[in-house]
Amino acid sequence: MPETGSADLRWAIGLMSGTSLDGVDAALVLTDGERIAEYGPGLTLPYDQMLRDRLRLLLDHAAELSGTEADLKDVERAVTLRHVEAVTALRNMVPTIVPDVIGFHGQTILHQPDIGRSWQIGDGALLQEQCGIPVIYDFRARDLDYGGEGAPLVPVLHAALLEREEKSVAVLNIGGVANVTLLGPVQDGARQVWACDTGPGNALLDDWAERHTGVACDTDGALARKGTVNRGVLERLLDSPYLKRPMPKSLDRLSFHGSAMEAVQALSPEDGAATLVAFTVEAIARTPMDVTPDRWFVAGGGRHNPVLMDRLRSRLGNVASVDALGWDGDALEAQCFALLAVRYLRRLPSSWPQTTGTRQACVAGRAVA
Ligand SMILES: Nc1ncnc2c1ncn2[C@@H]1O[C@H](COP(=O)(O)OP(=O)(O)OP(=O)(O)O)[C@@H](O)[C@H]1O
Ligand SMILES: CC(=O)N[C@H]1[C@@H]2OC[C@@H](O2)[C@@H](O)[C@@H]1O[C@H](C)C(=O)O
């Protein structure tokens, strides 16, 4: 824990809107960028259905966009203003705390690390002007410039929170896409950290559930629970070169979309859901890893799906929600961008060759001018 009076400690707000397109997560923490000294509140402000639909349309066509389209600018403004609302709501929960900085991820609409491109929409200048707090944003660009994947960035937070854990541990984040941070055992006071996106998280299952039930996700695994995994379809889904690639590596929300939806198309809603859950779990289990973790901890919305969690347990063994560590598994990504903002202010690196493939340790982010 940093000293509470340390000059480097700042109250930072982190804002993350993930690939599930469900809304804005916001969290307040007191941090020096190396450790979390105190947790403030966290919240989620959902996007309304119209904004979700407009974002989904952008995401589906992002590769064809130039960035200057009026509709894109309009959606970007709406996304930014929703973030302003999230900051206001968070500040109202703790009116006596004056935040020093905001870490603003933005909404990813395209991620193509193979051509050095990762596109997050969100107007940092507008957010700064509306909130009256300095904003750090554009967290993935420099890592991509250094030949990295630009993702995942959350391993720096996982490693900081688990610095006292001596054994090898894996932390999974199962959002729209799933990613893992693998912490090697502590040896001579040091440890190795690896990371990657493992494969789909909930995004395929969300789309499948929406198509068959009209609801945006398979709530509590209700569909998947009644289904049977189709082994043939599962093996076809798993026959992807991505899953055999070593870490580090990263994915776009739509990376598996076309082929996976085609593969499950003929299945019943229940069997399709069960098979997609098994795909998420099996992609995690088959991720090439240099060490075998003693324990697995799960963050992100996927940990609310009991069918997914049961399957992870029976496949991997020692699996628990990160909440068992006293963490808030819904706020973790937002907390990460608060930490990253302070790391930027202190010019501390946030990604490394083993976490993103960057050529050198890399300071993430950019300040609004
Ligand atoms: N009760 C529940 N039952 C089943 N699934 C749930 C439940 N609650 C949340 N989820 C899943 O969690 C998802 C949201 O997870 P999360 O907020 O971690 O994603 P994200 O942050 O948008 O994505 P990413 O981490 O990829 O950026 C929902 O889309 C849904 O699939
Ligand atoms: C490009 C992008 O937005 N990637 C997200 C996405 O959601 C999960 C996974 O894919 C992860 O790589 C990343 O987010 C987290 C916060 C990260 O960078 O660690």
UniProtKB/TrEMBL annotation:
Gene name linked to the record: anmK
Keyword vocabulary terms for this entry: ATP-binding, Carbohydrate metabolism, Kinase, Nucleotide-binding, Transferase
Record field: catalytic activity: 1,6-anhydro-N-acetyl-beta-muramate + ATP + H2O = N-acetyl-D-muramate 6-phosphate + ADP + H(+)
Record-listed E.C. numbers: 2.7.1.170
Xref: NCBIfam families: PRK09585.1-5
Classification via SUPFAM superfamilies: Actin-like ATPase domain
Family: Belongs to the anhydro-N-acetylmuramic acid kinase family.
Role: Catalyzes the specific phosphorylation of 1,6-anhydro-N-acetylmuramic acid (anhMurNAc) with the simultaneous cleavage of the 1,6-anhydro ring, generating MurNAc-6-P. Is required for the utilization of anhMurNAc either imported from the medium or derived from its own cell wall murein, and thus plays a role in cell wall recycling.
Sites where the protein binds ATP: 18-25
Matching HAMAP family: AnhMurNAc_kinase
Pfam assignment, any one: AnmK
InterPro entries membership: Anhydro_N_Ac-Mur_kinase, ATPase_NBD
GO MF: kinase activity
Pathway linked to the protein: Amino-sugar metabolism; 1,6-anhydro-N-acetylmuramate degradation; Cell wall biogenesis; peptidoglycan recycling
Name of the molecule in the record: Anhydro-N-acetylmuramic acid kinase
